[in-house]
Histidinol dehydrogenase
Amino acid sequence: MQIIKNESINQIKARIRQQTLKTVDPQVENRVADIIATVREKGDVALKSYAKAFDDVSLDVLKVSSSQINQAMKSVDPEVIAALEKAAANIRSFHQLELQTSFEDSPRPGVLRGTKVTALSAVGIYVPGGTAAYPSSVLMNALPAKIAGVKNIIMVTPPQKDGTNPVVLAAAKIAGIDSIYQVGGAQAIAALAYGTESIPKVDKITGPGNAYVATAKRAVYGQVAIDMIAGPSEIGILADDSARPQDVAADLLSQAEHDVNARAILITNSEKLAQAVSDEVDKQLLTLPRVDIARAAVDSNGFIYLVDTVDDMIDLMNVVAPEHLEIQLENAYDYLAKIQNAGSVFLGKYASEPLGDYLAGPNHILPTGGTARFSSALGVWDFQKRIQYLDYSQAALSDDASDVAALAREEGLEAHARAIEVRQS
């Protein structure tokens, strides 16, 4: 990994910001626009055509049958089923704490104010396919929606020549997903946003995907809600001499193996650790099955920043705003209060990032590319909406009428003022 040293904090910040600049490929945008338009016009016919063109799969029906799902449950290794069920239990227990409740108050006689919290009606979750299966993403998307009270959860996932991955179907069964469709890419996002003969229109789309999926989500936002525009996976690690180089290297590679564009960043005040981690990454790469992907990510987006103090380390990491942040410092919890920007934080040498990916309970669908500066992990709150309400008595209205009218006329909105004053006569 490239070690960056002898640069000022401001120089490193500028470097980091340059690395996180986002660009949109106009060719991808144009292709996605064509796909969305075709799906809106031709519906299921377009989806089946794209399945053949992009995935080399011929489909008679898009929906996965209940018998296929049940068969998948039987075919999966019982040890894997047990792990999925344990993960589901942990995810439920964690996200149950996020439930928001309705409230109302009466600040004075004759005035009632409140907010009604209600679940979205229908949600579409996108589960990537292709080079790997992600049953964990099924659980992370669906279970918070279930806890929120969403009545119709629809899953889409790219079609496979040998059928949808049984472990993905098993996870969907465990999560209580209502229906599953074999459709992926931008065409899946279009189908969820606008509906087809088979796939109903939803209120919100969640889940990560490739550049086409991300671009399509951006394009349909406003027609439906979305969780976020997810980019390549990333990890940031704060570590000093107390950290073990082999642990740090392994955790950096745990994200580098996702994607050639994944980012792996270590910020440390120890030159000894920096060099040891760089050497250990090279060593561990040699035995990884996905070595080509991980090596490309490390070569392009793997950096070790060497600075003077722990405060400098934290300052820089708040600029990185990583999707996953590990704090491998002595008394790691003591530094949590100083972290302003991160998707999910892993404290101490034993809280390795894959715990969050699979089992511990916090969500692994997280803001990437520095967007943790203003956005958060997927949670129950993403599947709830709030409706405000207000009730006034005649006497309470009389008390406030002149103030409302004054403010309305100040803004040049006479009809607003009259709507209040008409009730005073």
Summary: The two ends are 77 Å apart (CA to CA). The first strand starts at residue 2 and ends at 4.
